[in-house]
Amino acid sequence: MKKVEIITRTFKLDDIKAGLSEIGIKGMTVSEVKGFGRQGGHKEVYRGAEYQVDFVVKVKIEVVVEDARVADVIAAATKAARTGQVGDGKIFVMPVEEVVRIRTGETGDAAV
Amino acid sequence: MNAADTAFVLICSALVMFMTPGLGLFYGGMVRSKNVLATIMQSFILLGLVSILWAVAGYTLAFGKDVGGIIGNLDFLFLNGVGMDAAGGPVENIPHLAFMIFQCMFAVITPALITGAFAERMKFGGFLVFTTLWIFVVYAPMAHWVWGKGWMAEMGALDFAGGAVVHMSSAAAALAATVVLGKRKGYGHRPFIPHNLPMTVLGAAILWFGWFGFNAGSALAADGFAANAFVTTHLAAAAAALAWIFMEWRHSGKATTLGAASGAVAGLVAITPGAGFVTAMPAILIGVGGGVFCYLGIILKGKLGYDDSLDVVGVHGVGGTWGAIATGLFASVNKATGLFYGNPSQLWIQLASVAATWAFCFTASLILFKLVDATIGLRASDEEEERGLDLSQHNETGYQA
Asked: Which chain B residue is nearest to residue A45, measuring alpha carbons?
């Protein structure tokens, strides 16, 4: 099993959710994060004092899937999130050691 | 007694009361979220503390029978002799109690203004003790000197609704606070950004609304002078908001909501001493001056490097000073005449009163801050400041995640 972490623009959340749903992904965890890569921050001014804000707000979507489906997830997420501009974000894939469904106690692929 | 005047003054008292929590919101939105409750509390609790102090002893010290031009006597201690008729009061047309309660609301909000300077680093206990002392040592004498037939009134100083008593006094105290308390940790290195500007704008709107009670109510009658003060107040706020945002548009590239809110408040401060003495068109000029000079004052603060967290000196100090001087220039109604209407002497009187106000209020406040610091302590510890005052002073958080 693998966790696929998608960090991208906040307004792309709905598109990604729809795209993943279409390939049968039934659950995800979403959080709002801050970060920066190549995309610079922005300037804010309060009473004449300038502040350079380096961090940009992004959305992080995490899904855990069976190994065989990782490629589909990456393809669907990329298609939904890509704009072609700096700031599209990244996808990280990492191994997951165990998954447990709390209600039934199922483990492994059956719990995903 | 006059029923219309009585109704009017009581309603204006309620308007001014509303300004204190409004100020809490104005300031609260500008601090970091970990300090929002502590900031609001510092305004809100004064409704409790100062109201009682005022009723028991503050009122008599300010408005009791004059002793040597310096202070009122204790005739009205515990509101003795302050009743439902006009007897003992300064005017015949409203109950003495109405005058007292109207003045009470001014006494409440004035120390609340100071809190902007030491926002995000003051201990709650030290703050309460300082404020208690300040009401008796600074506010009551100032109110007496200007409105209670004290020496500034005898000198002919014009201060319709509190340019000196409220704004310059609190700004001078604010300056003293920055000297004694020092800068917030991380000042100049870390960005301290307002966490909730909608709250700040709401606060500014409440202040503007309440200021009609503050200025028009100071006419102490529902008459033409009150109407004039209402109009001058409104136009000065309007002009100042525009002036501020045009200044910042040119200076930093965009007009901001914080600028509009701050500008309006600066204009309201500037018109306070002259609201009942100038007419509408000069009020617009006074407002523009308020917006321009206060904006420059805030830029200057950045260069001078003292940490007046929420610009009390820049807005209330500069605005109140400009307003007092402008009154000496533009006064033309209500038995007042300024330089531009043929009377140069008023300007000198205003300048003398400005100088005396700053000197007395700054020095007295400095001594009081040092006294409280040496005994109870004023400043929150590094750890308390880092955690945030909401948690460290009040065991609360403003927002649940």
From this structure: B252
